[in-house]
Sequence to fold (401 residues):
Amino acid sequence: MKFLRKFLDKQKKHFIKEGKFERLFPLYEAIDIFLFTPDKITKDSLHIRDVIDMKRLMMVVIYALIPSVLMALYNTGYQVNLVLSKIANVAYEGWRAKLILFLGIGFDPSNILANIVHGALYFLPVYLVTIIIGGFWEVLFAIVRKHEINEGLLVTSLLFPMILPSTIPLWQVAIGISFGVVVGKEIFGGVGMNILNPALVGRVFLFFAYPAYISGNSVWVAVDGVSKATPLAELSDSALKLSVSLKDAFLGVIPGSMGETSTLACIIGAIILIVTGVASWKIMVSVLAGMVTLSLMFNLIGSSTNPMFGVSPLWHLVIGGFAFGTVFMATDPVSSAITEKGKYVYGFLIGSLVVLIRVINPAFPEGVMLAILFGNIFSPIIDYFFVNANIKRRILRNGSQ
Fold:
């Protein structure tokens, strides 16, 4: 590391003011800060300091995402290997199949390593396209605006592949992350200025622009000609019964977006985020409360034509992207509510909307994505009311003294 430190220090003269690569200084600074602690430390008492900086905050989120990433690799490969082991003469070709055969790993769904390696062949290309294209836009806007490159891209680039199906074409990944970064964040002024979660903005754009590639039964298993519905899609169809157990849904060995199927992995991530103080437990608990309240209400009402009315809160928790959205998306410190009481209202709104969309609109069984974006839009209004209420209370209290 000393060699790398000396090399970066030697190159710095080319990137500072009047250097031949002056315009690329944000890129140099991003690499330097990512690898080493900044040499500029705030000491003045006039500054407000916290126990955690942006770099460490983003790294904690990445650590919390590791269990979900591992499950993304395992389950993606497991779903493919499961199909290949059960259906004879199924067409499965391409570079992934050839590489698996070359490595001699095989397609055994009971082999953990085979599932992880096979899943990585789907996840890693999506992740690499996301980090490269997303990084391009981050660097471009940083150079044009002459500001530093923020570490927020590291989290966005990891969240985005997690909420996509394994069959997503890479060119759509490039378009989706471009839309998410540029329209969802940069046009608002960059990190800290955006009102919507960039990863979700990219996902919702792909959903409405290319619905055939991101929804339906054929997108969840990466084998041509094989169709397999998600549990939510099964529940919304009265003619079908669930093909998965509650245990499988909790562990995450079910069809779905690559990284959001495992509730267990999300709970582990939630514990890490709450213990470190990076994410708000108030938002997580209130999202859960909103979901439980409205789902129990629909359970009491019942319906002879809509089976979604009878889905229990426990099933709402373990299927779809509810757990992942609650832990990693709804708690985004930039786009969520920041007032303490506002966090409860914000979270309850999202949890209620998830169930409302899932139950009332069976044609669109998953409601987490739209519910969180809707909550993002209303979070400034929620904070506005609570801030004004606090101001009025202080004025009244000071006036009575």
